């Protein structure tokens, strides 16, 4: 009998995408859906970046080098130096999105049965990449009541076993929107050096920090140069999700040698999109300033509306464009599905990502949802009204 692998069967579904069939069915019934389930910004991509392919003369759309165009990697090296991150062009491998960089990093570091520490709730696809390679995710439990801060050092140390090979840190965090403070980065630094752990640092939201807070890269922490593996992406930074360009970067030559073999096996990153990404590096700083002002406006609006709903709790995030909200329900998988299948207000509803998908123990997130504030305030206002009325009707059903 034909049979797919046990690993294939045990791959987790994406909490951001698993309700899509219900959303499609609702749309077919004429319901407008506010998509707060997925981090697809509605911000325009920088014109300079898009014009780069409009104006490009291409005769043959050929492969690029496996580690990406040298001209792009050189410019990236310069770009990082301005952010106090010392990377040579050879320390960088361009990938098909941050997703491929994560998959390479996990493949380079872990053998089946190894363990990875991840502050929880975490970006759901980390569990997917780990599961695909037979790696065990050991969650570092962070609580909404503590604003998702890291637990004390003794708690962190108690999670280490002889099979622990790395920590995955998402900073600023998806799904929490939390930015690590200096003390937490020091905790990670000490833990990594003391226990010889790699730190896979997912910094795809690096520019999105608010309230005057500044992001510090793992690669700029003293003593972590050999431990850090940076994951980056143009998807959110320049609103270029469809370009599928990201990168893996490390000063550790062993990691880079191994990663290059994975890069060669998939031949090359997308050629056309590298031209776009290279041009995106010329984006003026005021693009980010404007984008940040917009996200702060949306964040403030959404978090205020959420906290004004009886029984809802949502800490104010300091980065990225997500928040986790606790709702007065006991099964957010059911609630999010119900909002698409059985509810509408003025022919509108809202799609959210159920919290369970961001936790190893699915019970933990059952009264939580992740919301992305990637729509303008007018749309967010209607989405919040749908949520408010939806919650009342769900409880009364
Ligand atoms: C934390 C985090 N890392 C990585 C990715 C992967 O993004 P991409 O493959 O588009 O670069 C995402 C996408 O949402 C993300 O939120």
Spatial ordering of strands, largest sheet: 2-8-7-6-5-3-4
| Succession of helices and strands | HHEHHEHEHEHEHEEEHHHEHEEEH
Bound molecules: pyridoxal-5'-phosphate
For the record, the count of structural domains works out to 2
Count the E strands. 12
Q: Report the total helices.
A: 13
Amount of beta strand: 5-15%
Query: How would you name the CATH homologous superfamily of the largest domain?
Result: Type I PLP-dependent aspartate aminotransferase-like (Major domain)
Overall pLDDT confidence: 95
**The CATH topology of the largest domain is what?**
Aspartate Aminotransferase, domain 2
Largest sheet: 7 strands, mixed
Q: Decide which structural class fits the backbone.
A: alpha/beta
First-to-last CA distance: 45 Å
- C-alpha Rg, in Å? 21 Å
CATH top level assignment of the largest domain: Alpha Beta
Helix fraction by DSSP (H/I, runs of at least 4): 25-40%
- List unreliable stretches of 5+ residues: none
Oligomer: single chain
Rough shape? globular
